[in-house]
Design brief:
This protein has about 150 residues and is an all-alpha fold. The chain is about 45% helix and about 0% strand.
Amino acid sequence: MARVQDHGDHTLAHYGIPGMRWGKKKSQAALPSNMPTHTPFKKDPTREPPPAKGVTDLSPKHIKRISDTELRARINRIQMETQYTQLTGGSGGTTGSKAKDAYAKFEKGHKVVNNLLGVIGTAQKIYKLANSDMVRAARGLPPAKKNKD
């Protein structure tokens, strides 16, 4: 330990600990028995990670660094923005993603085309039935001429 003595000429004397080297630790054997030994740091799995500073994206690697209150606040904000958009008709209740909107339009067009093809198929069947020999005979018409191809 440093000792300061007043010699009258205002000098500072430092005697230190005999045999102690600067930057060297004492060995465990040289420590008193009642002094606790150093134990390595262990993480507490129940402890929450500290809040992330400056994290703007919520990718999976950053979510674990955000506190529960901060995450709750962000989720509430996203839900409120979605509700506001739906109530004001800002995006017409769309999903918000251009890809999802385009796919929804594609599905709608696909259904229209399928319905149209179904109607055309039904019309073809009606035409064939109307020109069949059975219907022509019922109407009193001669049988249709067969083409030889």
